[in-house]
Amino acid sequence: MDKAEILSKVKEAFVSVLEHDNFELSDETTANDVDGWESITHMMIINEVEKVFSIKFKLMDLMNMDNVGDLIKTIQSEL
Fold this sequence. Notes:
By secondary structure, this protein is mostly helical. 59% of the residues lie in helices and 0% in strands. It contains 4 helices and no strands. The longest helix is centred in the first third of the chain and has 16 residues, at 3-18. The protein starts with a helix and ends with a helix. 13% of the residues are buried.
C-alpha cells in the first residue's frame, strides 16, 4: 500500500470520528490544525486507524508520533 492510499484511509478514519471533513491532512498536520482533534478524539482516531488497517500500535510508537506524517510512517512499518 502506498503513502497516498494510507493517507486516504487515515482521512476516512478522521472523518468517521470527527464527523466533518473540512480539513486537509499532510505530513505536517497536527491536532492544532484540525477542529475537534482533542485528547479524547485522538484516542478514538487511533482506535479507528487500528481497525481500518488491522494493526495495533505499540505504546512507544504512539508516544513518538508528533504529526500525521509520523502516523503514516508507523502504519507503513506495521503493514
